[in-house]
Amino acid sequence: MLYTFVIGINAVPVITNLPLNDMLYTFVIGINTVPVITNLPLNDVVGVKENQAAGTTVFTVSHLDPDVDDVITYYCNFLDGGEEHFACNPTS
Fold this sequence. Notes:
With 92 residues, the protein is an all-beta fold.
């Protein structure tokens, strides 16, 4: 995405009494767009069946990010001791 700002200045010197004009062009590129998780489960809840084998994938995140060169990192906030039973892969 490209945004262009034009800043102008006008001055009238006392000696010549003729207006002087100048412009400064500023281009802003690379505006970061927030990625969107495209497969959030209903009510943001993921269920896990009892007695699943260790290492079983519970949920894989899918996202859409218009900034294709961004590096996406995921994190998990576990409540009530969930970090003892679950792991979060920061790249998927």
